[in-house]
Amino acid sequence: MKLGIHPVSRPVVFRDRASDATFLTLSTASSETTIDWEDGNTYPLIDVEVSSASHPFYTGTARVVDSAGRIEQFERRYGRTASTTR
Predict the structure, then answer these.
(1) What are phi and psi for residue 73, nearest 5 degrees?
(2) Which PROSITE patterns match (predicted)?
């Protein structure tokens, strides 16, 4: 590994704005804002819109999209039917 070409990774706190969850991890991202963490140290703070704490896939609130209804709506709108043979 070449020296001097890789960014420095350091502890950074990410805060999910949707669920107000915070987590401390290593990152190369930088920020002007800081936060006092539970261990008494001050870390850079980065706000994110979505994380595993608020994403529907991870929270179990994901909805299934009705693709059959969309196809039927398309066929009604344009007067076409799906062909079964080529």
Answers:
(1) -65, -40
(2) RIBOSOMAL_L31 (PS01143)
